[in-house]
Amino acid sequence: MLFAVLGLLVVLLHYYLWKRLVRDVFTSGRARLVGTVVLVVLVVCVLATLTLARVVPPQVGAWFAWPGYIWLALFLYLMLALLVLELVRLALRPWVRADPAAAQAEPTTAETEAEPRKPVVGRRVFLARSAAVVAGVASATTVGVGMGTALGGPQLKRVPVPVGGSALRGYRIAVVSDIHLGPISGRAHTERIVRAINETEPDLVAMVGDLADGSVPELGEAAAPLRDLVSREGTFFVTGNHEYYSGHEQWITELERLGLHYLRNEHTLVAGDRLTLAGVPDVTGKSFSDAPDIPEALRGRRPELPTVLLAHQPVQVADAAAAGVDLQLSGHTHGGQLWPFHYAVRAAQPAVSGLSQVDGTWLYVSNGAGFWGPPVRVGAPPDITVVELGGPSQGPS
């Protein structure tokens, strides 16, 4: 039902796009036909990408995921640009109605037999073509720059957090989330992330969910470079919501085979027994008999030690704060990934990106090292973050 509604919405919005970019722009019937066919093909490509990407092997899905997702991003920014330009259309409506060419008479019989009169491009067509050019240039530029940002690799951030005081000063946790292996991002993506993390020489690596969009048989080879992660105390991970869509148990088994340590509602001591590191499943796990349980994860902890919690979604910080967690490390939001979606994310999560505080608990939200859907990021570059404990904070970001 959800996919039917989504598909209908995609078709209706493309109809609006057809009106503004095809019907209003072209006066030639042949040009309109070509534009209509192109738009229909793009609609089919988008629908195939949204419905088939998860049910076919990534190698097959890549054939329509690349054009489908890129068009989806272009479509988004074309829609935004055209909606803004509707205000311009509204303001210029009196000017268009006063166009003398709008009342152009039909050519006479003599004119038709001699040489057909060339159609006069009136103000309405001129305005439509101008709006199409502006919207096209704006959307193409935005998506082009956004693709460069998304595919250019994650930025390295260093964020001091005043947790643990002098006892933990200089202890560094490399945080990575939302790698999203799939039909577009493969083994080379993982290798680049591993190299970037290893170059920071962290004390510990924390992976906070959404590694893959597919099964282990499909994407296990793409995830294999994770075995090469190097840190003084190893790599710890928790599940994200996409693990449950892809088969969370098989991914847990595979990551443990690669040498990573899973924290499922449990904790361990690190940093020479000076820090409690805990982890919980994603909230989506409730629907898969794998619900997060922060009190259980912290049961038996030493109360005098600071606690760092790995939890995929920032929204879990409310329970973390109630349990006395000092710092929660999360991902999930992608920093909004495509502006202006960060406004929608902010309505659903206590934080979109960066460092903040919630009821006395520090919360750090990574933008993620990959992307979901379109290989485009606008206003939210991918990142890997080294959280440095025990130092003065830069304050909420």
From TrEMBL:
GO terms for molecular function: metal ion binding; UDP-2,3-diacylglucosamine hydrolase activity. The chain crosses the membrane at residues 6-22, 34-56, 68-88, 126-151. One of its GO terms (biological process) is lipid A biosynthetic process. It holds the Pfam family Metallophos. InterPro entries: Calcineurin-like_PHP, Metallo-depent_PP-like, Metallophosphoesterase_sf. It comes from Actinokineospora bangkokensis. GO terms for cellular component: membrane. Belongs to the metallophosphoesterase superfamily. Residues 172-335 form the Calcineurin-like phosphoesterase domain. Keywords: Hydrolase, Membrane, Metal-binding, Transmembrane, Transmembrane helix. PANTHER family: PHOSPHODIESTERASE YAEI, TRANSMEMBRANE PROTEIN WITH METALLOPHOSPHOESTERASE DOMAIN-RELATED. This is Metallophosphatase. Its cofactor is a divalent metal cation. Coiled coil: none annotated.
